[in-house]
Write a structure and sequence with these properties.
Length: 143
């Protein structure tokens, strides 16, 4: 076995924030209690991470739902204009790139043909960079 990778508290916090965001994307709108149950994180940790995502404007408060005997639960959902995601598909003959909003709606697509013999990493990265530049320009998002 290899040497285990050491994870800092910052690494763990970042991974937890991404997991909470993934759950919100998958189940919008959702409550902090549902997020805690889905991620296995404590409610206090989820509340802190939701606060960070709200501050980053990646998610938004969208109302309340009744609880089973307590105050209503606040609901959060993805703020589709709060950021963008880029997906890259690299194949033998093409590089395909799609740009999505945070609600996973496609905003732009681009494809670069990869010619035979263009398999050096710098050549493939060049095609990826060109396609990424194209979708960013098409969608008019900030880099």
């Amino acid at each position: 076995m290899g040497t285990p990778v050491k994870r800092t508290s910052r690494d763990i916090r970042t991974a937890n924030r991404y997991e909470v965001l993934r759950q919100i994307i998958a189940a919008s709108p959702t409550s902090r209690q549902e997020l805690a149950a889905a991620t296995g994180l404590s409610l206090a940790t989820v509340a802190t991470l939701v606060g960070e995502l709200l501050d980053l404007r990646m998610i938004t408060e969208v109302g309340f739902e009744d609880s089973a005997g307590g105050r209503p639960r606040g609901l959060v959902a993805v703020n589709t204009t709060g950021g963008a995601l880029i997906g890259v598909d690299i194949a033998e003959t093409y590089v395909h790139v799609e740009l999505f909003d945070l609600g996973l709606n496609v905003l732009a697509r681009a494809e670069e043909d990869v010619r035979p013999g263009e398999s050096l990493p710098e050549q493939v990265v060049g095609h990826v960079a060109t396609a990424v530049g194209s979708v960013v320009a098409q969608a008019g998002v900030e880099g």
